[in-house]
Amino acid sequence: MNVPARDRLSVLVYPHRQPSGPYIPAGYAVPYLPGGCPEDMADWPATDGLYPGPHQLTVCPACLADTRLGADVSDPHPTRPTTPMITALAPIPFPPTTHPSTTVLLRLLRPAGFTCLARLPLSGFPDEAVFVADDTTRDARILLHSLGLEYHLRHPDTGEALRGCLDPPVDLPALTTVLRTAGHPTPTPTPALPPLPPGARLLTPDDATHLITIGDHPAGQHSDLARNLALIDAVRAGLICVARLADGTLAFTPHPTHG
Ligand SMILES: [Zn+2]
């Protein structure tokens, strides 16, 4: 089932305090579906994790009464079609549990426009609550969970989606590069690569190694084994970064902190 963008409705959900819980959970906005929560939602955006099935992170007339047993729920109201499905109502000033690299990341993300920080109960991740940083003026979102950092950005000129994942620990020059490519301001002292051309994707060391190994790119047909092994060593050692261009070719460039 697809939800027509112009008809998007949301309700505000304020979970009740749990008797055993130490704090009042933060409120969040979730989609309201007047036609019922469907079994599947084809257009559920990746910025909101995986669609967890009916009546979980969406509200409809059939499950509204049940949702109200555990939370205060507002009346439905129209929502901008470009905002993520699930958003925080009261952004947290700082993540309550400290991810080792969160402080460093925030120094990069805040000036880049990601000022709306929250932990959201998104589905499909290994963590119960996912740390989310939103730039509401650019409709950009960054998700931080134990598998790494996911970015959902847009090219400033074309509006084309710029998405990807960086393995932990997050490589700050690589993140700076993708932020600059999407037109976000970043502090100048952070080294970065030149902006990526349209359609290009920065690869994780694992993905880059895989593509070099299987030669599944136009340059791979003529590659030689010794050269590939040297490339893989350099990728694994963090000496070079690899991007996959729109035509499938791989582009190699020295890592900005080693180059
Ligand atoms: Zn429902």
List keywords for this structure.
3 domains, single chain, alpha+beta, five-stranded antiparallel beta sheet, 24% strand, 259 residues, binds zinc ion
What secondary-structure arrangement, pairings included, does this model have?
Elements: E1 9-15, E2 28-32, H1 64-70, E3 71-73, E4 77-78, E5 87-88, H2 102-109, E6 116-120, E7 130-135, E8 140-145, E9 148-154, E10 161-166, H3 172-181, E11 201-202, H4 205-214, H5 225-236, E12 240-244, E13 250-254
Antiparallel strand pairs: 1-2, 1-3, 1-4, 2-5, 6-7, 7-8, 8-9, 9-10, 11-12, 12-13
The structure holds zinc ion (ZN).
The site of zinc ion (ZN) has 8 residues, from loops.
Task: Report on the architecture of this protein.
Helix 4 runs antiparallel to helix 5 (225-236). The strands form three sheets. Strands 1, 2, 3, 4 and 5 form a five-stranded antiparallel β-sheet that branches. A five-stranded antiparallel β-sheet has the order 6-7-8-9-10, with helices on one face. Strands 11-12-13 form a three-stranded antiparallel β-sheet, with helices on one face. It has 259 residues and is α+β, with helices and mostly antiparallel strands. Helices cover 18% and strands 24% of the residues. The protein has five helices and 13 strands. Strand 7 (130-135) and strand 8 (140-145) form a beta hairpin. It has three domains: 5-88, no CATH class; 93-195, no CATH class; 203-259, no CATH class. It has helices at 64-70, 102-109, 172-181, 205-214, 225-236; strands spanning 9-15, 28-32, 71-73, 77-78, 87-88, 116-120, 130-135, 140-145, 148-154, 161-166, 201-202, 240-244, 250-254. Zinc ion (ZN) binds at residues 37, 54-55, 58-60, 62-63.
